[in-house]
Fold this protein.
Amino acid sequence: MEKFTPTEYTLLCVASGHEFNDEGWTLADHECSCPSLVRAHYAKKQLEVKGDHYGLYKFCDWMPVGHLLKGSAAPVTYKSKGLGKHLGLENLWITFNGYNPAIGANMTTCSFKETEAYSVCGRAKQDEHRVLVVASAGNTARAFAKVCSENNIRLLLAVPHDNLDALWFDAPLNPCVKLIASAPGGDYFDAIALSEMALKAENFYAEGGAKNIARRDGMATTVLSATTTIGRIPDYYFQAVGSGTGAIAAWEANMRLIEDGRYGSHLMKLMVAQNAPFVPMYDAWRADSRAMLPYDDDKARRDAEIIDAKVLSNRKPPYGVVGGLYDALKATGGDILVATNPQGRKARQLFKELEGVDIHPAAGIATASLMKAVADGKVEKDATVMLNITGGGEELFKQDKELWYLKPSHVFSLKPELEDVVAKVEALFQ
């Protein structure tokens, strides 16, 4: 691989339009008077896709990374034959994030959360001594654990106890990766609260979630993969959402591709889906409310427990923030759809039969929402449709492998004491 020169960029506050320099891990414009995302504004306006040996970093022109990490893989986009024919869609393109060597897909955590982890960790300084803190419902934790373990980056994960079965690996991890969990019965929101307590400890810093430009621009590689493969910006973008960060990233990538000038001048309709009965963003969108509607804690936990796609159970999404999902849907004429567990399961089975590989529950919800949208006449038969399969190939990857599970060093109650959390996480890294 030739010598890497980081791409130049500035930061842009979406609310105010204020442009300023990134000081290394800037997550917000402190001069802005309202909650707003900031975006990376890249000096290079036309994307030059690198060779496959770059892995995910083949799209590094539009990624805010200072160095490249080993082990990454890029999303793979291909034109569907089986599912497209079944749905009567002439131009259905599948962007597959997962493990399926037959099509060149080599994400060994089987999730598009790898796109976030390699981008975020590539943004961090190479000599960073502090501990990175990441809260996750499962797949994000697995991706960050892999990347940090392989690249010797200190990491603290906070995950709900009920989701610990998502932390599987094909080999033991580097001890630089530690895990804490919120008690059984808790959900992703509880894991976030636990991670926020851990951040009170000395020398720990927040990954930043949707506020981190590297997370969003890593996820945006799905749209870069699709558009550069197809040769044009898609008309529709389908994905299941928990936080909506991937859809926000898709919108931002779309705007960069319009500025590029070679792929079209239109905004693709963002068609995002939630897994019923956990549908807080759907409820807010139906009420045309930028603010999330009240959602009782106990009901939210129960609803999160019911859904198959646990990774979609975010009670604190970047929905109403300026530049967030509400604005993305308004700008693109998009919509929020809903699919049930049975519909998701049926879609997963159909995908496996027609496309030849298993997919995660969240990807099943996305596929089910596409099937419903087509049945309801919401998608023209000749439209160019991108289906973002955010995870798959797990059954394939696990075949004939002995798995290793990351165990929590501590399991905290749903209302832990701050001092107890701080003392215990500091002790983990001494």
